[in-house]
Amino acid sequence: MLPTIREIADSLRRKETQPSEWMAQSLAAVRERDGAIGAFLTLDADGAVERARRLDGQPQTNPMFGVPFALKDNICTEGLRTTAASRILESYIPPYSATAGQRLADAGAVLIGKTNLDEFAMGSSTENSAFQKTRNPYHSDAVPGGSSGGSAAAVAAGLVPFALGSDTGGSIRQPAAFCGVVGLKPTYGRVSRYGLIAFGSSLDQIGPLTRTVEDAALVLQAIAGHDPNDSTSAPQPVDDWMAALERGVRGLRIGVVRTGEEEGVHPGVQAAVDAALRTLEGAGAEIVEVALPHAQYAVASYYLVAPAEASANLARFDGVRYGRRVVGETLTDMYERSRSEGFGLEVKRRIMIGTYILSEGYYDAYYKRAQQMRTLIRQDYEAAFERCDVVVTPTAPTPAFRFGEKSDPLQMYLTDLFTIPANLAGLPGLSVPCGMVDGLPVGIQFVGRAFDEATLLQIGHAYEQERGFPMPTPEVAGQ
Amino acid sequence: MSTQSVSTSAPLFETVIGLEVHVELKTETKIFCGCKTTFGSPPNTNVCPVCLGLPGALPVLNRRAVELAVKAAMALGCHINQDCKFDRKNYFYPDLPKGYQISQYDRPIGEHGHLEIEVGGERRRIGITRVHLEEDAGKSSHAADGTHTLVDYNRTGVPLIEIVSEPDIRSPEEARLYLEGIRAVMQYCDVSDCRMEEGSLRCDANISLRPFGQTAFGQKIELKNMNSFRNVQKALEFEVERQTAMLQRGEAVEQETRRFDEATQTTVLMRTKEEAHDYRYFPDPDLVPLAIDDAWLGQLRAELPELPATKRRRYVEELGLPPYDAGVLTSDPALAHYFEAVVAAGADAKQASNWVMGDLLAYLNNRGRSVADAPLAPEHLAALIGEVARDTISSKQAREVFQISCETGTDPQTVIRERGMAQISDADALLPVIDQVIAENPKSVSDYLGGKQKAIGALVGQVMKATQGKANPGMVNRLIAERIAAASES
Predict the structure, then answer these.
(1) CA-based nearest distance A173→chain B, Å
(2) How many domains in chain A?
(3) How far apart are CA B179 and CA B202, in angstroms?
(4) Which domain holds residue B355?
(5) ipTM above 0.90?
(6) A315: distance to nearest CA of chain B, Å?
(7) A15 has catalytic annotation
(8) Which residue, B295, B323, B341, sits at the end of a domain?
(9) Is the residue at A237 inside a domain?
(10) pLDDT of B73-107, one tens digit each?
(11) How far apart are CA B279 and CA A68, in angstroms?
(12) Is the residue at B249 inside a domain?
């Protein structure tokens, strides 16, 4: 089991170890244990060893220096296969790197490989990967969540100290909760989307999956900030999130949205979240009740906006320039065959829905109304934030489910009901492990004001300190 | 217009035409990435992840493209939408790498403009519905045997404006005049080269016919693939004829898209309405709404030059030029600029106009050169005009001097001096020669005195001969008449 970023950075700072040693340890862990987990789609062992070796003996410039990491395989890496877990990109090698991954590389972090996901990040269990199953490190029959299931499982199993994921409707936070790790979806615009294979462009955001909140802050520090290559990346200055961590929770107001059986919340999950709230209250936080009256429409709105955007975003996969091409009699034939064979069922379903939603005569009824609902949900949050500093819910209504359990797509969509509102409103969300139910981890979600990741990290870190129990290490992770 | 049999008699139907003109903007780099816009580069060399639509790539708006689009829209009298946005226009085609074109749907950069044209001496105002900013697509080359298509993405992402006219155009000729007007405005604002042969100006047309007096429009036909102003006019003329014949036969015109076939000079069916696209427009979430603040707008307005319509009016009203001259001179900003420089250097406006429209344009056209490569500086042309005005040389000589100057690069006054072409306009110098010629040609003198006015021509010819053609012929004519009259009175 690899230690945290903080521990590796401290060891490197004290010159007790060299980057190569950590890389060797990470690669050994992957080779030894990923067969049972299936987190990685592509491992760049030779490249990683070489990059780490070049750092040996160099001065440590920042806490990311020499730290091994993984990227979700919808984040482009120059010269390294990037598939989005889709057959249509099975052998696609990008000629450029995504900004977020490049910033980590520039800071000296060492990429080891690319992790599994639901095809094009469409799913909540990583079962929609065209290539392989990823198992929950806590239970081999349970899903790791999704769509960043590979990244979450890799961190939970101790294969890497951190990984990046992407979150369109909960795809960082939900797998983080299912795998017992920390997952942060930053404010929309906080981290550049340049090089992230787009799913829902107005919702997508890259963020870290780590073992601790402090590590999430360290990674965010490295990847956040305006990128001239992404028009939607915000000009807001990057805060000093390390300083924010130590502020404690005394005087902070935590807004609790009442949830229960109506939302399909598992009693064990509710109990774990309630216990976490009592812990925070005990540490000096004030608990207030808040309501998000329009949140009940979030899932419906999301499944209009995201597929609509996806239907256009995925049009470029046509077999003409790159990716899978299936030759046809005519041009249309080539398009149809390439896309029929290249895309999986869920991707096709969403392209169909999105195309329908945007077609003439339906735009106002669906897309436009869904966008109006986003405004109402954002206003709900604004009202809530007049009374509190963060809004708390369970990250997911249940712990990780079994493979095949959610065969009805609607049931699968509903697993994201607590995470989707933050995407629709563009707000930052953080999932922190808060207990175990039936041997599976549970996460508590904190949603904050736009660009106020500082308060999320502050509360999350304080909670980790006060939690009073260690999250059990999954057996597969070894010691 | 020999192809248009119906034009010989009074037309039976009113022609209604609307044009959609695409103009490539003259930016250094593409609209959403840093790639060069250079025309004629080897295929697929001016490309990057963004304009190739690679997974994960994102557009970043080039502000220069916005500026040129705003200027073009303002020059066409449009209202500028200061808060506009970009939308995705979705359709599949190999030359469209993202599977959608970034364009503007319901908030174009400019709306409600117009262009004035002159048709048969009458002014017509053609409404402009909208001007919107978008990215160009790539260029497909289809193999002759139909086995494959090659695509060049160099043009992908070159900024374009689409100028959509109201259905205000009433004849194929008006359509051509409108296009010429659009081109002049674009060139004046320096927003585009408008080279139709390089595709930097492209035109599609909608045309329908209706009985005179009917307010409802007839069924429209969309025309594509017209690669010159002349072909636009020809295609429309063909359509007028074709649709007239159909309507006369009692057939209904069906909505369809046709393309002009240059070889046969006809239009042929491309697709029918059933194949029409649903573009599924929606706001592009990768781009933030575009806000054009007052300061920026003001700055762009201040940068607008005098536009052709205003210039035309000024040439007529202030310089006293005939409307025809004003029209020709203002059709091209470089030509107008040259003309104005000649006048500024002191030449008479009408003389300057005659020279520029006559000898200069002929010289350039014969050599396929543009005004920018004029062989004679405007000040030198003004000097030449001045020498004629001062009678230093004759008009005939001046044209010779012009040719010599153009070919040798020597300025006209040097040519006149070096070649000894200056006219003798000095009476003291001419009188001895004149007196001698009168003395030596009594027959001509008596013929003249006998009423044969033409006889003086022979005498003038003798004087010119004696002076090797340098005498000022007008002056010689006058002096001879005076000397003969004086002699006969005494």
Answers:
(1) 22
(2) 1
(3) 10
(4) 306-418
(5) yes
(6) 5
(7) no
(8) B295
(9) yes
(10) 999 999 999 999 999 999 999 999 999 999 999 99
(11) 45
(12) yes
